Amino acid sequence: MDVVSPELNSLLPDEIMDTEAIEDIPHSQPDGTAVQSEPGDDTSVPMETDTPAASGNVNLCPDAAPTEQTQTLTTSAPADSTFSISTGSQLPISISSVSSPLLTLKPSMATSTATTRTTDSVTGTTVTTSGLQKLTAPFTISAANHQIILNKVASSQATEAAKSAASQPQVIKQDGQKLLVTAIGKSGQPIVLQLPHTGNKPGVSQTVGDSKSPAPQFKVVTIGGRSELKPVAGSASNQVTTLQAQQLKTVQIAKKTPTSSAAPIKFIITKTVNSKGLSPQTTVSPVIAGRVLTQNSPVMPPRTITLSEPHNTSIQSIPGKKIAISPLKTPSKVTVVSVASPTSNASQKSVTLPVNVALGQQILTVQQSTSASPVKVATSQTTTQNIKPVQSVAVGGVGGSQFKTIIPLATQPNVQQIQVPGSRFHYVRLVTATTASSTGQPSGPSTSSIQTAKPMVVSTGAVRMSVPIVPAQTIKQVAPKPLTSAAVVTTTQTQQRLIMPATPLPQIQPNFTNLPPGTVLAPAPGGGNVGYAVVPAQYVTQLQQSPFVTLASSSGFPASTAIQTQARLPLNGLSTAETTSRPRKPCNCTKSQCLKLYCDCFANGEFCNNCNCNNCFNNLEHETERLKAIKTCLDRNPEAFKPKIGKGKEGESDRRHSKGCNCKRSGCLKNYCECYEAKIMCSSICKCIGCKNFEESPERKTLMHLADAAEVRVQQQTAAKTKLSSQISDLLMRTAPVISSGGGRLPYTFVTKEVLEATCECLLEQAKKAEQTHQPQAEAERLILEEFGHCLMRIISSAGKAKADCASINC
DNA sequence: GAGTTTGAAACT
DNA sequence: CAGTTTCAAACTC
């Protein structure tokens, strides 16, 4: 059984995609401290650096172990862009340029004889997690669009050939094979590592198998286009610096073999961060489990991306391995990671996540297959163990499209949700509990099982949270765990959705991107053990608040409704700020069970929480019903859960309703109209009658003016109230202490009841006197006023005297 | 707060 | 695809 080592998990938050599955690595030492790589297996794949004139500098800095073959490639690039890659145990990639054009790196060959040998059986791409890493696959880095695409040859034969002739260069097919690292940050541009389409280059042979199998694209979606560099690599010598592809990743992607039952080819991208746990040398990783790390440092620590693929002879012989990855056509990007069933030790049992790319979504399938030979991953503390890759997929849609994370879950996986700092994505780490027990993972002090269960907290900037979550099946096993004070849960990201594989539901898989958050795809009857659960960001937040993933949690906690804290997902077409500033209205559904689009909560992919609905099924307790309802909605309208209001290219003015309204009586000037409600004009696609919601509409202008006026009034009133309140407060602040102390009392404070009565008596007495003397009325009034003046003078005098006395006393 | 109006969603 | 019904929000009183 495979369990992600705690160290690796602890490092994961920093990573976009992190599959830490390393399996079938022969010759791994039992203690697991180091995975030994076989020199013979090391297939040196010439890596060429193709650097466009305008591209940034690419440096391959091998650091290396003496035995390592490393090459340093430096490519001329724009001054602003620098890309450096050192292949030793690590592949450091540094991109210092944002605006630089596409940078294509073709490392001639970097082979490292590190302890860990992970070689892509198909492409020969090797990524080592234990300090030795091979980067044999050429890759392209486009700093301009924040995309780094690593193209990997998906030919099993290539690997086989490589094994047969180690000296022979492996074939790298560069067509369409991409490792896409997408950093959705400020620009929203992904970082793509891509193999150049150089075809066959000198020293590079292409295998037949490659031509048959479609070029797999591996897309790693990173979080937040931060410019900071993070130390990901373990060994000090090996460093990868990337301004935008900062995420450490260990991605093991099992190539799906459609035609063969043989074990799937695995493509492993291992970020050095993970290797930290594997390699004692690794020390740089900022991410520490249980700690809050601030990653918003302007200086981005170097990152290492390791591509490793365990050798599997059986696998290698299988041509035509495929990875179901959709072309990069649609803005929506989906990465799907499947975790093989932990229960099967049978060789080549691959649980390939059937990812449907139908919607043009980019889907990354990361699969971990259990092979006969156990994968030996050297961790500092653990012995040989199979590490299940845990993948998080972030789908970054253009124009506020949906972000989703699809994670295949093992049978009894533990999930750790990771919030990458600065990222708008939530990451989920899945750990197979059963594997931990079965593999007899070392029960060291800091056993991985325990650590994995613990929530990771990674803080960077405003968003800083990594919380373990459990898969849909094990949701009831979540035990509440108080968050640390440092843990700050923010859901500032725009629509974030996590798809957690729970059990297979093939019929829905094609619509992953359309699935609303919170969707749990139930396993299809007779299907595999891999399913999907679409977890909304809110859900992640919910889980963050209490859930504690226990590995051996067979005892089910009842599905906690408490964790269903309503989170705020951006509404259609609205920015996060807009949505976060305005809490969603609770629904009042009575008949729909909140499982129809009538319900705004459901329509927005949210769980009901603090709503006024009756007989609500839109919660975790009714996953099945909810799933079914979602499927129904999707069947009816595949885009049912997509935002209705698409963002225009340039600001709000271009926003428009995707379907248009059908208003008949409201003139589209009431909130009945979805266009008006969204504060957008009706467009040509609207079918409304008597529409007044157009630019030149006088009614609309009047309404707008009235609205503006009302708003102004409200603002003025608010300002006036605020001012008055402040004045009163100020007055109270000035007077209250005086009154209490007696010193410095204002004169009027001396006008007590007694003083007032005395004054009145004086005035009356003066009036009587004038009356007795038969003074004219005017004179009488003068005398009275004069007496009043005298009274005031005496009061003031007394006040001053009292103040002086008080002051003297205080002194 | 109850009742009415409205239009999207669901249904036929 | 069109017409009708259902539904819940928006609105009015």
UniProtKB/TrEMBL annotation:
InterPro entries linked: CRC, Lin-54_fam, Tesmin/TSO1-like_CXC
Keywords, alphabetical: Nucleus
Location of region: Disordered:
25-58, 63-82
Where do Polar residues bias regions lie? 67-82
Gene Ontology biological process terms in this record: regulation of DNA-templated transcription
Xref: Pfam families: TCR (PF03638)
Which residue ranges does the record assign to the CRC domain?
583-696
Q: Name one GO cellular component term.
A: nucleus
Its annotated compartments are: Nucleus
Superkingdom of source: Eukaryota
User: What SMART domains does this protein's entry cite?
Assistant: CXC (SM01114)
Coiled-coil stretches, from where to where?
A: none
Family listed: Belongs to the lin-54 family.
Record-given protein name: Protein lin-54-like protein
Source organism per entry reads Collichthys lucidus (Big head croaker)
